[in-house]
Amino acid sequence: MTATIGERLAEARVNVARAAKVSGRDPGQVQLVAVSKTHPPEALQEAMEAGQFLFGESRVQEARAKIPLLPARGRWHFIGHLQKNKIRAALPLFEQFHSVDSWETAEQFDRIAQEESQRPNVLLEVNVAGEASKYGFSPEGLVARIEKLMALHRLEIAGLMTIAPFHPEAEHSRPYFAQLRELRDRLEREAGIGLPQLSMGMSGDYLVAIEEGATAVRVGSAIFGTRKGKQWTPPAGLD
Ligand SMILES: *Cc1c(COP(=O)(O)O)cnc(C)c1O
């Protein structure tokens, strides 16, 4: 793959717009989150020069080192597993947290947000396929907990997020995305709440996700290329 980040971004945008149109939706209602985890600030700078300002990061430490090195126009979403001891540091960095994945994390997040006078915007992560390797509420667990979650007044709960099981065929992800949408519809109906946002779809399956109702897709390798390391760390002296 010799295309530049700018070219791959342009291609992703065209794909997003086409998938939105095909499914009768306004392309403006699908956010493209460029997943920049593990990539150095220079790669993000290149994306910014191509007009991309919304980024997804999955480690608090890495984001905390990277964000100050980039122009202030950057907007940051947290998409990884949020460790309880990182919540306080993460709060001021991100405009949305896609991955509140347990009752304990939600409760702690609410408490810390209260102490810090913040109202974080969050999505609840659902482990639709019930994979042992993944974090997230089970669908039934979420139904059982939703009223208590909505009573955590410091959290602005805007919707749901999922990661489909890995599979080389995008179509394999479709039932999981459909299930997340149906779960959202059920929660809205039964609990009388609004959960407008659905964060689903990655490089391999974001078109299918948009067809199933995604309002945010999290696209990493299709924009930045394959990830080599586990995380980016600042050069010595810059910490
Ligand atoms: C890394 C990651 C992505 C991006 O994955 P790609 O396959 O590189 O697009 C999306 N969502 C989450 C939660 C991730 O951790």
Please explain how this structure is put together.
The protein is 38% helix and 15% strand. The chain is an alpha/beta fold. It has a single domain (5-224), classed as TIM Barrel (Alpha-Beta Barrel), CATH 3.20.20. It has an 8-stranded parallel beta sheet. The longest helix is centred in the first third of the chain and has 18 residues, at 5-22. The two termini are 32 Å apart. Pyridoxal-5'-phosphate binds at residues 35, 37, 58, 79-80, 163, 202-204, 218-222.
CATH superfamily: Alanine racemase
Question: Tell me about the biggest sheet?
Answer: 8 strands, parallel
Q: Could you say which structural class the secondary elements and strand pairing correspond to?
A: alpha/beta
Ligand inventory reads: pyridoxal-5'-phosphate
The top-level CATH class is: Alpha Beta
CATH architecture: Alpha-Beta Barrel
> What is the global morphology?
globular
* Span of the ends, CA to CA: 32 Å
Residues in helix, %: 25-40%
Reading the helices and strands in chain order gives: HEHEHEHEHEHEHEHEH
Overall pLDDT: 96
Strand-residue proportion:
15-25%
> Any idea how many domains?
1
Low-confidence stretches: none
State the CATH topology.
Answer: TIM Barrel
Rg result? 17 Å
